From TrEMBL:
Membrane topology summary: Single-pass type I membrane protein
Top-level lineage group: Eukaryota
Record family assignment: Belongs to the GLMP family.
Function field: Required to protect lysosomal transporter MFSD1 from lysosomal proteolysis and for MFSD1 lysosomal localization.
Signal peptide: 1-27
Keywords noted in UniProt: Glycoprotein, Lysosome, Membrane, Signal, Transmembrane, Transmembrane helix
One CC-aspect GO term: lysosomal membrane
Assembly and oligomerization: Interacts (via lumenal domain) with lysosomal protein MFSD1; the interaction starts while both proteins are still in the endoplasmic reticulum and is required for stabilization of MFSD1 in lysosomes but has no direct effect on its targeting to lysosomes or transporter activity.
UniProt name for this protein: Glycosylated lysosomal membrane protein
């Protein structure tokens, strides 16, 4: 499971640190109780549900966190932090759905924007894990052609949106044949206050954070020892990059089987108003109602700098512009599911991270 979140922490004169993360840092106290008013808007200003764009607005004291989750192009979440409790999202749908989407997504007033970042899930890898589960050691011929998530068919969010739970489920099915009757989904949840999740791995979240849970169900593997890996692209405006960190101090009371929390954080910056983090536990689960024995170990691999993006990165272009590669720093990594001692995906046909 991966939880992505945003946390804005006021740091007196030094400005603001915006944390984008999964459920809070290890050991972080749930005290404080900062609350936000959270509302969901599906395809604002567009009458069709043929495409999915979900706007989550989390309003705090004189600030707002805007999350834009979308499966237009590759699955993307854009996070914009503003210094106003009245900033709003503007989508020019004609432009967004055209071949030149630059400028189609804006936050107004523009001068209230303090910080913008994004996370994209471009592709799913499948490889033969019979020799090793370590994707870095797998031979090129053991890697199957990857699934480009931009080519998936995403179900309408109609009926998959829960205004009470502040959650939505983006479900995609693969190209006919290869994926069988399988599907992947990104379930996203926003929070109004600090707390700890009920189900495993019981992540700690705050009003500044959001969670995304990736699942694969009934996917037909292409081999008897298939394992899967998800590629993640992180976007930071300007030249500032991301850093990969690992924290091992885990609250054993809640998730005793989990040994590591990893995070991708913005590099420290002198003149920035924000920073963010994306945080995950190195555990996935092979059951819909996970118990400890269903734990599937996750491995992550070194961060790679990305220089070119295809036109499928539509939400990025719509917000950051056509020259997103020049305006932003792009880094990507893979996360694979299943360690040496875990079963391959085939046995359970279910994976949730
Ligand atoms: C969330 O953001 C608010 C506003 O910036 C800040 O006061 C609060 O401390 C943050 N909470 C956490 C848990 O980071
Ligand atoms: C929020 O803004 C109002 C009006 O500008 C100001 O009076 C108030 O002090 C601000 N509150 C905080 C916590 O910054
Ligand atoms: C909030 O913004 C809208 C337009 O975006 C404006 O009409 C309204 O007056 C603003 N409200 C406040 C309290 O500033
Ligand atoms: C939306 O974009 C289209 C195409 O770029 C443009 O013609 C139109 O004027 C834009 N609409 C608004 C309200 O800006
Ligand atoms: C995978 O293999 C690489 C190269 O040998 C190694 O550096 C890395 O630590 C391995 N990863 C894991 C999770 O064992
Ligand atoms: C995705 O679709 C595009 C065009 O729709 C096609 O060119 C490309 O080959 C497809 N990629 C995969 C991996 O199927
Ligand atoms: C929405 O979420 C609430 C709270 O988690 C839950 O009780 C309710 O059953 C959900 N509604 C639907 C339609 O799933
Ligand atoms: C898909 O589901 C249908 C009906 O349940 C079944 O007949 C078919 O064999 C399934 N296809 C695959 C590839 O699993
Ligand atoms: C996969 O497993 C099945 C059943 O155990 C076996 O019949 C088949 O030969 C295996 N395929 C490969 C490529 O090893
Ligand atoms: C940024 O901060 C570091 C240490 O805090 C300092 O050494 C460096 O000179 C600063 N850079 C700029 C451009 O201000
Ligand atoms: C990637 O960028 C380089 C340099 O800008 C360019 O030469 C190359 O054609 C690009 N590749 C793709 C696949 O767009
Ligand atoms: C993910 O793994 C695949 C297969 O090994 C590789 O081709 C790709 O470059 C990796 N992506 C990143 C960001 O490391």
């Amino acid at each position: 499971m991966l939880a992505a979140a945003a946390a804005a922490a006021a740091a007196s004169w030094a400005g603001l640190a915006l944390l984008w993360a999964a459920g809070g840092c290890a050991g972080e106290a749930a005290a404080g109780g900062y609350r936000r008013r959270v509302s969901l808007e599906y395809n604002p200003g567009w009458a069709s549900s043929g495409v999915n764009l979900l706007h989550t607005r989390a309003v705090g004291v004189n600030d707002t966190l805007h999350y834009i989750w979308s499966t237009i192009g590759v699955p993307t979440v854009l996070l914009v932090y503003t210094a106003s409790d009245n900033s709003s999202l503007r989508v020019n749908w004609t432009r967004l759905l055209s071949s030149s989407p630059a400028g189609a997504i804006r936050i107004e007033p523009a001068d209230s924007v303090l910080y913008s970042t994004a996370v994209v899930f471009p592709r799913l890898w499948e490889y033969d894990g019979s020799d090793t589960s370590n994707l870095s050691l797998v031979k090129a011929w053991q890697i199957y052609p990857s699934y480009n998530l931009a080519n998936f068919t995403w179900a309408s969010l109609d009926g998959r949106l829960n205004e009470t739970a502040l959650s939505a489920d983006f479900q995609g099915s693969g190209p006919e044949g290869a994926f069988g009757n399988g599907s992947v989904s990104f379930k996203v949840t926003a929070y109004e206050s600090d707390n700890r999740d009920g189900p495993l791995p019981r992540l700690l979240h705050s009003a500044n954070s959001s969670k995304v849970e990736f699942t694969m169900e009934r996917v037909a593997p292409r081999g008897n020892h298939s394992r899967f890996a998800l590629e993640i692209l992180a976007v930071e405006e300007g030249s500032r990059g991301k850093q990969l960190q690992s924290a091992r101090s885990i609250d054993d009371e809640y998730t005793p089987t989990i040994f590591e929390m990893a995070q991708l954080i913005s590099e420290p910056h002198n003149h920035s108003w924000g920073s963010s983090f994306l945080q995950w536990k190195t555990a996935a689960y092979s059951s819909k109602t996970p118990h400890r024995e269903d734990t599937v170990h996750c491995q992550y691999y070194p961060l790679q700098t990305v220089r070119n993006l295809s036109s499928e990165f539509r939400i990025l272009q719509a917000y950051f512009g056509e020259d997103v590669e020049r305006r932003c720093s792009l880094s990507a990594l893979n996360i694979s599911f299943g360690g040496e001692d875990n079963e391959a995906y085939k046995e359970k046909g279910y994976l949730s991270w």
